């Protein structure tokens, strides 16, 4: 049985939406949605919050996350990477508490649509297959947004396809000719902890399994406009779940 750590990165210095991680999203702080989903899934040994902010730490604890350390300020700056913050959390837990998770699930607070069953699905995939280093949620791209339809302009404003420089006359003539393509869905990021300490240090490792998710769960909040759209989408998700 593999052991799973749920890890939340939530620094205090968000710029586009000040204090977004603890801002009320529908009826609870944004960060609470991820914590609750993780707790209800029942698959995690621990759910740990990494933050540099005392208020965020307090809110996280109130909703059930552990905050065994405060993240160093140098790992919470605008230039710090998520990989560095994750690596710090894993090293701290290993060195200070002798806790060595095999797999880490990264909970993105700005992706609040994750549900307990998503975590359970991915746990089953990991338990049944060891041929990959990470798992990421994916959702199907609508045909009109697929990479095949992307274009670019040259210096004279002439158009060609962005991905292979072909002319528009070679565009697919019907949606049936467009190959399916997918985009990352940030509700689910899971990876072997050891990925951070070998090779190029990327959490993804050498091979990543795609966990297909309904596109309605693809919510990612980055701007105030995103926030408004996300609340409307989340209300619909909750209504649908309550009907099941």
TrEMBL record:
CDD domains: CMP-NeuAc_Synthase (cd02513)
Entry-linked InterPro entries: CMP-NeuNAc_synthase, Cytidylyl_trans, Nucleotide-diphossugar_trans
UniProt-recorded name of the protein: N-acylneuraminate cytidylyltransferase
Domain of life (superkingdom): Bacteria
SUPFAM superfamilies assigned to the protein according to its UniProt record, in alphabetical order: Nucleotide-diphospho-sugar transferases (SSF53448)
A molecular function GO annotation: N-acylneuraminate cytidylyltransferase activity
PANTHER family given in the database record: HAD SUPERFAMILY MEMBERS CMAS AND KDSC (PTHR21485), N-ACYLNEURAMINATE CYTIDYLYLTRANSFERASE-RELATED (PTHR21485:SF6)
